[in-house]
Design goal:
The structure is a homodimer.
Chain A (H helix, E strand, L loop, with lengths): L7 E4 L13 H14 L3 E2 L13 H13 L16 H13 L5 E3 L10 H15 L6 E5 L1 H4 L5 H10 L4 E6 L4 H10 L4 E4 L5 H6 L4 E3 L3 H13 L6 H15 L4 H13 L16 H13 L12
Parallel strand pairs in A: 1-2, 1-7, 3-4, 4-5, 5-6, 6-7
Helix pairs in contact in A: 1-2, 2-3, 3-4, 4-6, 9-10, 11-12
Chain lengths: ~300, ~300
């Protein structure tokens, strides 16, 4: 097990699209910088909430180059490079490593259902072998709500044993704390991120390294404060509060909801754009949501407040 | 509703991979010709059983060009061009139309779960609009066992109304005959394919146009005979027999199983290659399976027997 490449609060960065639904790399780069200023310790672009799988691999690689080209530190990036196709996963992962990314977050192939652990092992192992680069730091992405099949603990153990300096962590988006807890016990030193800030405090108390959470896109400051102060007496209170903010944002489907907030805060209606199969919200819905989260102290782009 | 572009027995063509897991276009083209000789009326390359989603869009487009370049009639091809990414689906569909394919088979985007009919409509509609070609003949691909979310009847109705000369049919791989039956009643004239030969006779009797079936890769002759003779007195007997052959093949997971048969019949061990997350069978398993299906009259590449 190596030292943690990533800890803290990572956001699966929302992807800004123009009105013709093309991703806008210039805006994405600016947004990445903003999120790091707002409180994210690092960024996980091309995650579920980035609509990554709704973009082609070429679009994702082009965006990554624009973000790094604009001056975002590649070491602070853990782009999603998983794909159903081995050749796509290899290409995207190789590219991220070559660009100096601190790590990558890799989904299991998610089209076929009922696959075996052996089959998933073969996918991850072939990807690692074909990338063939000691700099590769791979985080597994366990998200059964979308992929249906997740990553079993036996599979994790096998991957860690075969690739101890490459397979260094996991994002647990199962929404099942018992799963995270069991991994924390079985794999000490493995970089385990909760997939939502709802489990941030529990994860830190049990030896986890932070959370990679959708709402890092809109509430990074408050979540970062809990991360920094998880051993303080008011931690439970803070945990309850950020979970209330999250619930408020989840009034609408998460991606359009967060985009409507960024639209309301920036006045840029293009922030409302989402790729199908999602549907956009309106600026009015964004403004109403902004008013409601403001009451909870979540007021848009601000530097992370001093403790 | 337009005249049927496709009827009969279509096979989602198995993709031959070399030992380095690269798709082999020369072998695929030869195999397409063989399947048409064995009894397929047309072909659906890049379907579920082609491991299409385990290949990149570029690999699929390159293979299509090689198949057509080798002399396979593009009008007899209904390639799968669906993808999670709108840009990928548009690119692959445009390419297939430009190459003269008789139709395309399109999956709904399958990463996100819990999407609305409106969201799926937006995906298909945007794809059609962006392809923007009157030659496009789109078949919807309903396969909830893999995509989890399928294509609802209300969505089909809406797409037919909006694009009556473009959205011309569907492959129903739900495995639920009641779903096929309900579509046949609600959408007369729509090109409805059963997703398995198990429902071929029922589908023909109720007004369907045939089946697009995995086992077209290994048992096209027998299935074609039932299609040609579905009104004959021995049709039920034939249906029962081809279903028995199917069950025998399903002893192993379908894709490796059929590939092991083609390996046994051809002596070409490269036919055993499958992409992860699948695992290959051995030549011995293929030979044992070949012996068992031979007892049922399924003996490998032969011309479709005369009635």
């Amino acid at each position: 097990m190596t030292t943690q490449a990533f800890t803290g609060i990572l956001s699966p960065v929302l992807t800004p699209f123009d009105n013709d639904l093309r991703p806008n790399g210039r805006k994405l780069a600016a947004f990445c910088k903003s999120l790091l200023a707002e409180g994210c310790t690092a960024l996980a672009p091309f995650g579920t909430n980035s609509e990554a799988n709704s973009m082609s691999v070429e679009e994702r690689m082009d965006l990554l180059e624009q973000v790094i080209g604009a001056g975002v530190d590649a070491k602070k990036l853990m782009p999603g490079t998983g794909a159903c196709a081995l050749s796509d996963a290899v290409r995207a992962t190789k590219h991220a490593v070559a660009k100096g990314c601190g790590g990558v977050l890799v989904l299991p192939p998610f089209y076929y259902k009922g696959m075996s652990d052996d089959g998933f092992y073969r996918f991850f192992s072939e990807t690692i072998q074909r990338v063939g680069d000691a700099r590769l730091k791979m985080y597994l992405y366990h998200i059964p709500p979308q992929t249906v099949q997740g990553i079993s603990h036996d599979l994790i153990e096998r991957l860690i044993k075969a690739y101890p300096t490459t397979v260094v962590g996991i994002k647990d988006s199962s929404g099942d704390w018992k799963n995270t807890e069991a991994m924390l016990k079985r794999f000490p030193g493995f970089g385990i991120f909760a997939g939502s800030e709802d489990f941030l405090l529990a994860n830190m108390r049990a030896g986890g390294v932070g959370c990679i959470t959708a709402t890092g896109n809109v509430n990074a400051g408050m979540i970062r404060q809990l991360f920094e102060g998880w051993q303080k007496p008011d931690a439970d209170q803070k945990q309850a509060h950020i979970s209330t903010v999250r619930k408020t944002i989840q009034r609408h489907p998460m991606i359009p909801s967060m985009k409507s907030l960024r639209a309301a805060w920036s006045g840029d209606t293009a922030w409302l754009n989402v790729l199908p199969p999602f549907l956009p919200l309106t600026m009015e819905q964004g403004k109403a949501l902004a008013a409601d989260v403001a009451k909870l102290g979540c007021k848009g782009p601000e530097m992370v407040p001093a403790e």
